[in-house]
Amino acid sequence: MARLLSKIIVGLLALWATSAFIAELLGVTIIFPFNISEREDVPYHRLTAIRLSILLSFSYFGFRYIFFQSEKLYPIQFLDIYIKFFTITSLFVFYSMNVELREYYFVFFLFVVSIILHFASRKKIRNYFN
């Protein structure tokens, strides 16, 4: 059930990201979830959260490569790790910048997605008696 739900969520987010990319090329800014405007700036607290989550992900995968370079990751595992970092950095950035309470729906959404992706990306233990 978690895998199906995660595929639906990842698919919807991928469609949203693709449409936001195309819209930006056409001069229309889409701020998550559906705030559409002509060339409006993305709020600074969201840009900071994205930047910090990318930096944390880069450092995590850099250290992972140095110490565990033979382990392979599936794309769902990468998304799981990145969304977790994005959730954590969003929470800290929003709190430290005294963002309005209504903006925390974004953090709540990321938290729910990270829980679903966590369960969908777990390795299943198939042989219990090996």
Short recap of the structure:
This protein has about 130 residues and is mostly helical. It contains four helices and two strands; from the N terminus they run αββααα.
Task: Provide structural commentary.
This protein is mostly helical and 130 residues long. It has one domain. It has four helices and two strands. It has a two-stranded antiparallel sheet with strand order 1-2. Strand 1 and strand 2 form a beta hairpin. Helix 2 packs across helix 3 and helix 3 runs antiparallel to helix 4. The radius of gyration is 17 Å and the shape is globular. The protein starts with a helix and ends in a 9-residue tail after the last helix.
Topology record:
Layout: H1 2-25, E1 28-31, E2 35-38, H2 44-68, H3 75-96, H4 104-121
Antiparallel strand pairs: 1-2
Helix pairs in contact: 1-4, 2-3, 3-4
Quick one: how many beta strands?
A: 2
- Pattern of helices and strands: HEEHHH
Strand order of the largest sheet: 1-2
Q: Mind telling me the C-alpha Rg?
A: 17 Å
How many structurally independent domains?
Answer: 1
Shape: globular
Structural class: mainly alpha
Mean pLDDT, nearest integer? 83
Query: Biggest β-sheet, characterized?
Result: 2 strands, antiparallel
Key traits:
disordered C terminus, 4 helices, 130 residues
